[in-house]
Specification:
This protein is an alpha/beta fold. It is built from 12 helices and 10 strands. Strands 1, 2, 3, 4, 5, 6, 7, 8, 9 and 10 form a 10-stranded parallel β-sheet that branches. The protein is globular.
Amino acid sequence: MMSTVRHDWTVEEVEQLLNTPFNDLLFQAQTVHREYHDPNAVQVSTLLSIKTGACPEDCAYCPQSARYDTGLERERLMEVEAVIEKAKAAKAAGSDRFCMGAAWRSPRDKDMPYVLAMVKGVKELGLETCMTLGMLDDKKADALAEAGLDYYNHNLDTSPEFYGEIITTRSYSDRLNTLSNVRNAGMKVCSGGILGMGESHKDRAGLLVQLANLPAHPDSVPINQLVKVAGTPLETQGDLDPLDFIRTIAVARIMMPASHVRLSAGREEMSEEMQAMCFFAGANSIFYGECLLTTPNPAANKDQDLFRKLGINSEHRVTKAPQELDEILAQPEQNADLFYDASQRSAQTH
Ligand code: SAM
Ligand code: DTB
Ligand code: SF4
């Protein structure tokens, strides 16, 4: 019998799940995972920052907030054609979803025509499209859906109780409203959070309860490990216990069995063994390509190696013939235009 998809989780029972003996927890998560997903398939998304830095919000983790001096160069909204070129490169490197992020509180009316043209252009390449542009009202959500946007990313980030320690310029209910506008517009919801910001185990349970008790589970649930960026208030935050991170992935898998749980930011600091454990715990999506939005991510060939060692396949077909892809990966210099240049946009990480 398939495990049931529930929307009535309580914080207490999720705290208990988080404290289950490690082997029991991972066994349970892997069992649920196999009921709903191919255990050897991982979905790959590529990120691009289409508008970088100078954000008016005060998210304590974020290198792009104008309030913190992180040495990041601000960049205006990219040209539509330049975004489409980056999407072509992501597709050639084997990505199946292209996620465009902007350092905005919310998009302005005058930004919309450009953003909608990006959605259309990227979709025409045969890629899935995702955007994360901040808060959306119902009209902007409808316009994005109409242009063909498949996913909208908007994270709850943490529990309602801890949220005020991290962000003061928008409320938890603002975030829930945006998710509701995205869902009502018919787009798929991508929503998750960040671990390692100083939150308690109860806060992690609280975040997962918020996500799983939404009217529909988010289709994608990114679990980010805090990337500590110099100049942000969280720069000196203590390290997260890797086993606690893996436990949280396992519990997310159990609570939202049909969703894609994404092992998101923070992989640059994770060993191959830790990432393998995350996949075993039920993570089945990653960001691929050597830059997240402004911070480094493992190089594509490193991830290809890891996938090969673990016998993992990209979930959707690799869009280039495998030997052609191998040639590209073997000659990064000759194919430089296909790879992101992380050095162009590098917030200093610890
Ligand atoms: N400005 C938009 C917003 O906040 O809704 C979209 C872009 S914002 C950078 C997207 C998400 O990236 C945030 O909600 C947060 O979860 C994640 N993020 C940002 N900085 C991070 C960091 N240093 N470590 C881990 N995740 C981070
Ligand atoms: C998500 O949950 N993580 C991504 C994506 N959604 C937009 C962003 C991670 C950003 C990490 C810090 C940076 O590179 O700026
Ligand atoms: Fe701005 Fe998004 Fe960064 Fe918050 S997370 S400061 S809203 S770019």
